[in-house]
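Researcher: Quick sanity check before group meeting.
Model: Go ahead. Protein one:
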Amino acid sequence: MLLPVKWLKDYVKIDKDVRVIADKITATGSHVESIDSPGEGLKNIVVGVIQKIEKHPNADKLVICQVDVGKEVIQIVTGAPNVFEGAHVPTALIGAVLADDFKIKKSKFRGEDSFGMFCSYQELGFNVSVIPREFRDGVLILENSTKAGEDVLPIIGLHDDIVELEITPNRPDCLSVLGIARETAATFGVPLNSLDINLKEEGEDIHQSVNGIEVQTKQCMRYYSRLLENVKIGPSPQWLQNRLMASGIRPINNIVDLTNYVMLEVGQPLHAFDLDMLYDKRIIVRQGKENEVMTTLDGVERKLRSSDIVIADGKESIGIAGVMGGMDSEVTENTTKVLLEGANFNRESIRNTSKEFVLRTEASSRFEKGLSPVTAKLAVDRVCQLVEEIGIGKVAKGFIDVYPDKQEELEVSVRPKKVNDLLGTNMSVEDMVTYLNRLEIQSVGTEDKILSKIPSFRTDLYIEEDLVEEIGRLYGFENIVPQPLRGTLTRGNKPDYRILEKRMKQYFMGLGYDEFMTYSFISPKSYDKLNLPVDSPLRDSVMVINPLGEEYSVMRRTLLTNMLEMLSKNANRKRKQAYGYEFGNTFTKSDVEGDLPKEKMNLAIGFYGEKDFYFLKQTIEIGLKSIGLYPLTFERERELPYFHPGRGAKVFYQDYYLGSFGEIHPEVLKNYGLKERVYAGELDFELITKLDKEEKKYKPLPKFPSTSRDFSFLLPVDVEMGKIKEIVVQEGKELLEDFHVFDIYQGKGIEEGKKSVAFTISYRGKDHTLTDEEVNPSMERIVKEIEKKLQGVLRS
């Protein structure tokens, strides 16, 4: 935001250097980016009054002017197309310095002497974007009230410093001269010269000309309007143009300039309609219609949406509310009646519309930050006051104000003790109350509590801590003496799951696995790649409201989609083998509507290469055994469609289901572009953390030899190895040391529907060497139970 310092001093009588002001208001929260002195370096430029113009005898496009510059009349040769006798023009005398350090010397044009130069806005250092259109191709013509020989710089505002401020998004009230004036007055402890508005209202009653204002959308919280009559459209006074250009806005005509001026002054965007161009002389505020078309003031035809707020007359839309008006109702040189709009719109709606049309204006940038509805009346009335003062029209009697839900006054209390505790100060209650009142936050206080009434323009103050900050910044954060930390120091530590995660990572790295790290966002199409049925619970994912794209539009329910994507990328890069693991969160919808999703940490393991199913099983088994989860039991996985039929397993510890693993289904591999066999699994790491057993039991090395027996059974093909293990563990009792399957065979020599399973059972005694008489009963029971429960036949 650009702020002319002289404009600021209209509201705050402060006789201090601009740098002192800038430093002080920066310290209290309104950050000054830069200070510009636009007239610095310019000199010897005065008002010249053209007394006589003659054609140049040797050039068709040049004229010779006799110019009164106060002390003398000088001759200037110019090619400016807009000069005329009697014109008051900025005149650079010999020795003058213009913008870009351009120096004026005596010159001769086609044989005629020239003792100076007429100046345009650009030659005086103005940016072309703020120059009025009528002066872009010619010299600047000043008002007739200026005197010959008078210094030009004060007349066009170049003697004033301009401060550039960075305004934080939570302070839209500071996007105005009045807002910064409040901050400056509070900072320096001086009075604020508030606006005093009294209107003559010399016109007819507004209701005789305007047929009403109808607000049909809740996105418009207030619509305040007044009527100007007998309006004389023309250029604005020089002082008004100066302030607009210094603030970065190009002057257009007196009415439009006044709406822009007041927007800069009080922070409320305004709009002016030519009443005679409104069908049925009324205003309707409504939502747009899908594919409704209108042309905005920049000459662009725009297609509206139902989510846009529009201003319409009795026939069609005439403006995009809070963003830009329409061509059909703009104020022109023929306008005599002007309907002023001061409204308050929903900030989110304005922001979305501005983004959709890629149309960011001074109005939209203010509305999207959230304005107080109270300011709408102040702004419109201020325009009317200036219209009467300048004498360019009359204000009609009365106004129309649609304001159904008035802004309620907010009261916030703050405890003095909390103020001092948070800031580390020892302020008195009186000082705290004084600081708040200086900010126009009406406050009264006791030792226990300060009660504050929040002014309407402070839309950022809601809670106690907000007031603590206000007190602190006026007290001066630089005045707060550093205090030692208070409280009990405690030693931090990692949570259990992080400690266990680190241990498991070291284990995986020791086996040659790499750690994968992937996004929590995935595409809904990832579930199609896993061959999940349409009604699978895994498809009920948490949707991302504002995704970067379709491929990141849902929160993952499983880590396997990411694991397979990573393995696919490795295979595409011609890596012969890849082994990876990932610890990551999965997300499910909350049972309570409106609550955040539930997060659960899972562990995914996957690879392709030389290893097989049993390596993955061993990876899981030994890894979990290292943290005390042993023995594990395994069951065939029959439910998850992304595992190869018959080559997947569920993992259990006691009665807890820990997860599943296996060979990935060929169709899923095809979906991911994988040609190698892939083995992967996913475990519930959150549950594993809860079951983790920290205690370690010492087991001495065995002193006595073990004895082993090999068995080979003919079994039905659907018998799982886990069932055999259950019998062996049950019948082997305390003598059993190990059970190991070393061969499974189907094919030639084995009848159809059967398979040959060979396994080893090892026994060991704790205090002596076992004899056959001690081991044989256990083996006999095992054989009998396998034959009985599993229909097994012992092979000879």
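Researcher: Fine. The other one?
Model: Protein two, sequence then structure:
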Amino acid sequence: MKLPMEWAKSFAPFEATPAEFAEKMTMTGSKVETFEREADAMSNVVVGRVAATQPHPDSDHLHVIQVDTGAGEPIQIVTGAANLKPGDYAPVALHRSKLPNGAEIRKGKLRGLESNGMLCSLPELCLTTHDFPGSSEEEILVLEEPAEPGSDAAVALGMDDVTFDFEITPNRPDCLSVRGLAREAAATFRVPFKDHTPPEPQGKGDVSTLLSAVVQAETCNRYSAAMVENVRIKPSPRWLRQRLRHAGVRPINNIVDITNYVMLEYGQPMHAFDYAYVNGGKITVRMAKEGEKIVTLDGIERALDPGMMVIADEKGPIAVAGVMGGEYSGVYDTTEKVVFESAAFDGPSVRATSRRLGLRTESSGRFEKGLDPNTAGPALRRALELVVELDAGDIVGGILDDYPRPRAQRTMPLNVAAVNALLGIDVSEKEVIDILTPLDLKVENGVITIPTARADVSRDCDIAEEVVRFVGYNTIPATILSGVAKARPTARQLFEEKCMRVLVGCGLWQCQTYSFYSPAGFDKINLPENDPLRDAVKIMNPFGEETSIMRTTALPSIFEVAARNWAARAESCAVFEQATEYTPTPGEEDLPIERQKLVLAAYGPSWDYAALKGVAEALLEVAGITRWEVRRNDAGTTFHPGRCGDIWVQVPVENAPPELVKLGTLGEVHPAVTESYDIKPRLVAADLSLDLLFEASGATPQFRQLPKFPAITRDLALVAGEDMPAAEIAGAITSAAGKRLESLTLFDVYTGEKIGPGKKSLAYSLVLRDAAATLTDADADEIIGKVLAKLGGMGVALRQ
């Protein structure tokens, strides 16, 4: 909703700069999106008075104009326009001026004569003949009224007003009007609201002898009509044209401008019918009949159905109620009699019709919000008042008004205690009344009378909202909620937050991707044709092929993120996502199974398999999982065979021993996959089940006393088969050493001639400690002996 400042001040005489007005209105609940002043788009443009004109001596189409700009001697300007004469006033762009169309003007020479600026036409000022009727866009604009030479041309042109653009919430249709926003401004700045009550129209004759109006549709709450005869079509006065332009509406002629002006001032859409095209002089508000059609004002033929409300005469529909008039329902230069319509149509009905016709208008947008039927009458009287003021015609006596179910004002008790309890502040009854009264919420004997335009006010919380808007949200002290349960995160939420912190601490960035993608993603990650993951949930109304299925694996999503970073020339990238995967269920009506995953992807100098495995180990540690192992994976299609592994964790089973379950896979991504994503460096990734990680997580870590007795460190250099996993050897050492093994670290791996082909050397450091006594060398030797015995049974020997 656009609000010209000058128009608002005619109702509420506040004093504020545009920035102050925008700030205070926003803080009291009427959000200002932006504001602009037409004059800000131009500079150094003044009013000039033509002192003399003469033809250019060396041109048959140029003219030399002497212009008084209030700076002493007249300045000389050469122009091609021939419509100026001495005594005319025109806008002059001086040397180093800027125009609204972006042009910058400097002095120069034309055909040998100096020209010290430019006389402006309408297009150069971003104006049209609708703004200045009688002018030509091909000629210099001659001002309608004299002005002081040298004064700001923006003032003379009516371009100095400020227009505010408000975002109006759906529950405040009363603010879709200048009056509504001006009332808010009056309450905000604590100034009187100067409302205007249109007088009862005084006309000749009786409208009921020329026109009848019948409401048959239940979706029409009120229908009012009046008639004007001897219509005199002409341009509207300048003040009205300027207000319309600043409000974003193009001036047309006096009759059409009146309907638009009233719509903006009252928020009540109106329509003017040429009486000559109302067949039979009878208007009926009814639902459309099957097969009926109408050509609307935009020249398009539209098919109607029985669910659409229309305005009809004896022959058929002449307008779509609340949306747009018919082809012959406008006002023409030949119009002699006009029917003004002011109605209250049902919002949902208008919205449904607008959607089915694919036709949204300023009128339909307002009706959809639910307008007050009690505004229709005053709006019609205001239109008739303007007809008289603008001498646009002669009013026919009487008004047709079909209003079978008048909407009455509502009342509710004023409960100051409830308001204070809701807001957590202490506002007196007098303060509450002083806030409500300027909003037309009158309080008498403890009872609030609610105007019919404020359908959003009905409960104590609504009154509290009105109060806090003007008390100020920033004045409410910060307190803990009372009377409600204190919300706490669940164990799962705390666990997820802990995992996210670990991943961020390891140097990864969290990202968020869509849960749907293209089936082509399966091919890009080398998923086999018969893989169950290709059976995905298909979206019925996708944006396109690229978002047509719900993901069954989040790897394509995280790979796309890595690919975008590589395409943006990022030297390294490490990202993760807490992603949801969707597995379809057999029944068509059943919802898919949702599983939570942690997917990771990284490339760069510091990222390889070992680095990513370290991240996985950090996750397992924070989850409190102590029993886990990594098994080599040689059958990968998405991951590089032999350069990836599966993590298996121990999960508790009710009434049964714990079992090892696959948590996920991590390792280097297959070269064919990185090539399909145009990623040049080696890419490592992990696909881990967050659900299983939580299920397998251990108890909360408990405090353990620092050891009282010293530890013994022993190193073992072992020789094993090249294919034997290091994790298997570590597991055997841990099992044989028992509880007195405090830590085990693999610190060296060697292959070479010294140990023979098909062999590898692994060096482990063992830290041994007894919590109850000091270990002796004999105790340590005994433990090492057990370890070597167990390793020997696996074909692992001590390196000589």
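Researcher: One line on it for the slide.
Model: The domain at 410-471 is CATH 3.30.56.10 (Phenylalanyl-tRNA Synthetase; Chain B, domain 1).
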